[in-house]
Design goal:
The protein has about 600 residues and is an alpha+beta fold. The chain has two domains: about 5-185, putative glycoside hydrolase family protein from bacillus halodurans (Beta-galactosidase, Chain A, domain 5); about 205-605, Glycosyltransferase (Alpha/alpha barrel). It contains 14 helices and 28 strands. The strands form seven sheets. The chain has a 15-stranded antiparallel beta sheet that branches. It is elongated and about 75 Å long. About 55% of the residues are buried.
């Protein structure tokens, strides 16, 4: 039986990340980058596919927490004979990536057990393990090398490295696991105590600039730390999640690799970072985006690798059974080849918001924007695959067309606000043509609502974003009826589904959980409608879904009351941050993007606090 997704915590060094189960087992780790092959893959299989357990030999009661304002995990084990704590963290990387595990005795004496099963290549490759002069263990397989340094005596058994020891009150025993390319000399061991102090100082100094969010400040702080942990520091790219193939339905086939960077999230990422007070991170994200999309507009992708890589070939891993037998396990993501018109709107919106908030010079990227608009003019009438990356035939998705409208709207606003040159009159006409096209073909007069796609009778949660991106004001009766229709048709036990997988043909078997970001979108729609009590009630429910260390996955199963989907999910935490500030601050991400007259101009200046 797989460990429940909500039983995992995250540690990371802003280049890679590991998932640590409540029982003390690290079940997922890709080294040396988020998108590298996993050396611990028990998350998607069994312990034999790689894991690292440190836990008491005897039955124990377990509690855990992050040290306040850090990504340092403390797991406390209490047995009949005493108590011990395992402190897990990944120091900020210098030359090599390292996991430090400190076992600290807090009461009596506790018999402990360590079990290290290294399996490179997503659980397929057993390394050669040997002991070196320093006493450390070295494991090598092809290009990969890992060294384990600890005073505990270790021995091998059935391709597993085992250690047995007893920890007493006041004692600390370190375990330091370090990655290095196998052709390089063995890395020097990290001093665990110094690394702990430095790591704690880094996180606390970094989070100190976060802006308050009233009663939701703690949730925002933990979400901001999580997003930082999902950021690839060398480039500024943010992975959607550090995992692959955690299912959207237990036992199902909706299993995708999320260790890449989606343009879909671009504007909300920028606004969330800026409203939280992290302008350097917002700038790094914007610069990653500019580098990634650079090139011919007709080659624009919906997602890229953490360095801006374009080839994200999808393949299946036959030797991994999947989380709770949810197969197939997929590596790479074939959706990177899809046409999704919404990315054009995201790019233009990011440019515009960056100019408004002083993240770039007015003319920055302007020539490229004009080139992208010129290409969009040729293709906006084409069907696409939509933001949910459906693997069925392309359609004229409503939200895709609306984001094409956003592309022209934001470029017009940049030109008029900052005096940038371009055929503004032509853009005005195109913007109006797209608006008329959407209102004519996406609004079903019989149903009295906008629908998922032209000619469709189905709803989609992304219709909640129509007023949020400023397409139509929330006071428009068509928008009000659409929000009401989503409430009637897509709410499941109080949470919003993306769309009905039973009624929409998306080339996959039906069934999935409630997509958490969509429920945060409903919070924002309520706020636009001045339904403040309902917005806060729903937000409280969503915050209450976080696990014991404050993390959210992609989806939630209201029936089984379990987190499902890739974990932790950047989009969920990003939506939490934006909705929290929409609820509590004068300057709101929602008003800044909607620009629909609900906020006076002075409220749209993020930097003015």
């Amino acid at each position: 039986m797989s460990t429940p997704i909500e039983d995992y915590a995250l540690i990371g060094d802003c280049m890679s990340a590991a998932l640590v189960a409540a029982d003390g087992s690290i079940d997922w780790l890709c080294w040396p980058r988020f998108d590298s092959e996993a050396c611990f893959a028990a998350l998607l299989g069994t312990p034999e596919h790689g894991r690292w357990l440190i836990a008491p030999r005897d039955k124990a009661r377990t509690t855990r927490r992050y040290r306040p304002d850090t990504l340092i995990l403390e797991t406390c084990f209490e047995t009949a004979d005493g108590a011990a704590m395992v402190v897990d963290f990944m120091p900020r990387r210098a030359a090599n990536s390292t996991i430090v595990r400190l076992v600290i005795g807090t009461c009596g004496h506790v018999k402990m057990h360590s079990e290290l099963i290294l399996r490179f290549g997503y659980g397929a490759v057993v390394p050669w393990v040997s002991r070196v002069e320093s006493g450390a263990l070295r494991a090598i397989a092809g290009p990969d090398m890992v060294a384990l340094d600890t005073p505990v005596h270790l021995h091998g058994k059935d391709f597993t490295t085992i250690g047995e020891f007893t920890i007493g009150r006041g004692e600390t025993i370190p375990f330091v696991l370090t990655y290095s390319p196998s052709h390089l000399p063995l890395p020097k061991p990290v001093d665990a105590a110094t690394a702990l102090t430095d790591t704690e100082d880094f996180w606390r100094e970094w989070i100190a600039k976060v802006r308050p969010a009233g009663p939701w400040t703690e949730a925002v702080r933990r979400s901001v730390i999580t997003l930082k942990a999902l950021t690839y520091a060398p480039t500024g790219g943010i992975v959607a999640a550090p995992t692959s193939s955690l299912p959207e339905r237990l036992g199902g086939q909706r299993n995708w690799d999320y260790r890449f960077c989606w343009l879909r999230d671009a504007t909300l990422t920028l606004l969330g970072a800026m409203h939280a007070g992290f302008f350097e991170e917002a700038q790094a994200w914007r610069e990653w985006l500019l580098r990634a999309v650079a090139g011919s507009p007709d080659q624009l992708q919906i997602m890229y690798g953490i360095g801006g890589e374009r080839r994200l070939t999808e393949w299946e891993v036959p030797w991994l059974p999947g989380y709770e037998n949810s197969a197939p396990v997929r590596i790479g993501n074939a959706a990177h080849t899809q046409l999704q018109l919404d990315v054009f709107g995201e790019i233009m919106d990011v440019h515009h918001q960056a100019r408004r908030c002083g993240l770039s010079t007015n003319e920055s990227g302007w020539d490229a924007q004009i080139a992208f608009l010129s290409h969009l003019n040729k293709i906006w009438k084409e069907p696409d695959h939509g933001i949910w990356e459906m693997r069925g035939p392309p359609q004229h998705f409503t939200y895709s067309k609306v984001m094409a409208w956003v592309a022209y709207d934001r470029t017009i606003k940049s030109a008029e606000t900052f005096g940038l040159p371009g055929p503004v009159d032509e853009w005005h006409k195109l913007r109006d043509v797209i608006c008329d096209d959407v209102c004519e073909h996406a609004y079903d007069k019989e149903l009295g609502t906008f629908t998922q796609a032209y000619g469709s009778k189905q709803l989609d949660a992304n219709l909640l974003l129509l007023p949020c991106v400023g397409f139509l004001p929330v006071s428009d009766p068509r928008i009000a009826r659409t929000i009401a229709a989503v409430e009637r048709g897509l709410l499941s036990n109080g949470f919003v589904m993306r769309y009905s997988t039973h009624d929409v043909k998306d080339a996959l078997p039906p069934g999935e959980g409630a997509f958490l970001a969509c429920s945060f979108w409903l919070v924002d729609a309520y706020l636009l409608q001045h339904r403040y009590d309902e917005a806060e009630t729903l937000f409280r429910r969503l915050v209450g879904l976080r696990n014991d260390v404050g993390l959210l996955s992609e989806e939630y199963d209201p029936q089984d009351k379990r987190l499902i989907g890739n974990f932790p999910q950047a989009f969920s935490h990003l939506a939490l941050i934006n909705s929290a500030y929409n609820l509590t601050r004068t300057a709101k991400p929602l008003h800044q993007r909607a620009q629909d007259g609900h906020a006076p101009p002075e409220e749209l200046t993020v930097a003015a606090d």
